């Protein structure tokens, strides 16, 4: 196998820049879709169920997109870039129209289309890092992605607050989403499309090493049923490290789905004492929640910058970095229950930001060192199952059942559940013992 050339920081930056737009989409949906649902009359306990279409679609879309991208090659358009483009196109449309929903089913449908479309772009971006970089640069590459994701999270999470500061109305009649949110989603749509196009235009992909073998394999494995059979074969034959990482991912993403679903109702009620969704107090508090959520994006950016510097100079222990980061994030969620002043949320979400930076880099660096290069796309897609299955279980009532059963009825107890889940995720890293994937 030909040794891949080491790339410069700016080459890695260019190939990862599309993640800025992807994260604009994720941050806006994660920070403000529950606010849109509440504005349209959703009960707090119904919010997770309104999110369910998104992870259900990801469960189906990701392995298929990964499988197809592994078997795609065009001399001009490459392997992963066609998926970047079509994912960006549909994501942009869904992101723009989501805040104009006039009924809950419309908002839930917009979220479904948005999440499915982002997924079409996202995992090929993960696979691109593994395609382009030698193993010695994998941690560095995924950390640079995380740096860009942190920038996107911070800016996008603050957009509705910024719109309010420049005079765009933050309140609206009952059942109508405020203009500040609409403007924020429109800006996010533009950033999403243009940043992905930037990566498409500035990044070249490597062709298959053996084009004749690549074409022969495509010819021998034509047909939908053949593809489905191969995907299931890869699932049953996934590497041991992938199964171990899957357990870590399960508890990590259960925690973050809980945050995305319940941070707005939990914090507006527990910290700000605001419950009337048509009131100025609630909308100001919801903007503040977005601002505090932006903190975890900002801190993940700074933490990723530090990791990028360290990973470029010395070898790091991926497992220990991930374990400690997740435990710190878990304590950040738990602290939300105990704070007495809103500004303390910056401390809580700073700790969460450390976990977020690690979640977006370390598992993928470990995974990419344990799978065959020619199956990188399909395994990145299958790996997404460990992200969407916990979200599906959470949406079907797992969050509502567990937080009430373990901690009590108050909605802020969802943050205790998220913190506990993240600490369990951190400890699950102890199951990973293969030094070839834990040390870069």
UniProtKB/TrEMBL annotation:
Coiled coil: none annotated. Pfam families: MFS_1. Gene3D superfamilies: MFS general substrate transporter like domains. The keyword Transmembrane applies. The chain crosses the membrane at residues 12-37, 49-69, 81-98, 142-163, 183-201, 245-263, 292-311, 320-338, 344-366, 378-403, 415-432. Residues 241-440 form the Major facilitator superfamily (MFS) profile domain. It comes from the Bacteria. It is found in: Membrane. It is a multi-pass membrane protein. Keywords: Membrane, Transmembrane, Transmembrane helix, Transport. PANTHER family: SOLUTE CARRIER FAMILY 45 MEMBER 3 ISOFORM X1 (PTHR19432:SF35), SUGAR TRANSPORTER (PTHR19432). This is MFS transporter. It comes from Algoriphagus sediminis.
């Amino acid at each position: 196998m030909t040794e891949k050339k080491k790339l410069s920081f700016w080459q890695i930056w260019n190939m990862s820049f599309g993640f800025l737009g992807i994260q604009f989409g994720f941050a806006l949906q994660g920070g403000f879709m529950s606010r849109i649902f509440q504005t349209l009359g959703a009960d707090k306990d119904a919010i997770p169920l309104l999110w369910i279409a998104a992870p259900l679609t990801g469960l189906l879309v990701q392995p298929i997109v990964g499988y197809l991208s592994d078997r795609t090659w065009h001399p001009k358009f490459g392997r992963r870039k066609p998926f970047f483009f079509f994912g960006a196109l549909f994501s942009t449309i869904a992101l723009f129209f989501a805040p104009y929903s006039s009924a809950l089913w419309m908002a839930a449908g917009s979220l479904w289309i948005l999440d499915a479309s982002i997924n079409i772009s996202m995992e090929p971006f993960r696979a691109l890092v593994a395609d382009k970089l030698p193993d010695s640069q994998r941690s560095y590459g995924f950390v640079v992605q995380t740096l860009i994701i942190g920038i996107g999270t911070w800016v996008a999470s603050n957009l509705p607050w910024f719109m309010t500061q420049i005079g765009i109305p933050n309140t609206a009649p009952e059942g109508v989403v405020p203009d500040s949110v609409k403007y924020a989603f429109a800006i996010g749509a533009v950033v999403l499309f243009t940043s992905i196009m930037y990566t498409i235009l500035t990044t070249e992909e490597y062709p298959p090493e053996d084009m004749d073998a690549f074409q022969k394999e495509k010819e021998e494995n034509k047909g939908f049923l053949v593809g489905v059979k191969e995907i299931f074969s890869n699932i049953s034959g996934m590497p041991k490290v992938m199964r171990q990482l899957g357990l870590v991912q399960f508890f990590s993403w259960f925690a973050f789905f809980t945050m995305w679903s319940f941070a707005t109702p939990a914090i507006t009620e527990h910290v700000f004492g605001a419950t009337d969704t048509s009131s100025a107090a609630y909308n100001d508090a919801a903007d503040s929640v977005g601002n505090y959520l932006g903190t975890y994006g900002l801190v993940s950016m700074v933490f990723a910058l530090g990791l990028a510097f360290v990973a470029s100079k010395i070898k790091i222990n991926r497992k220990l970095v991930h374990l400690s980061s997740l435990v710190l994030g878990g304590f950040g969620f738990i602290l939300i229950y105990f704070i007495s002043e809103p500004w303390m949320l910056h401390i809580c979400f700073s700790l969460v930001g450390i976990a977020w930076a690690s979640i977006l880099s370390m598992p993928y660096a470990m995974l990419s060192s344990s799978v065959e290069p020619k199956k990188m796309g399909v395994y990145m897609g299958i790996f997404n199952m460990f992200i969407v299955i916990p979200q599906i279980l959470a949406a079907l009532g797992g969050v509502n059942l567990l937080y009430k059963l373990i901690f009590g009825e108050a909605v802020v107890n969802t943050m205790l559940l998220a913190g506990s889940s993240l600490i369990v995720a951190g400890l699950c890293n102890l199951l990973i013992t293969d030094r070839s994937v834990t040390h870069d």
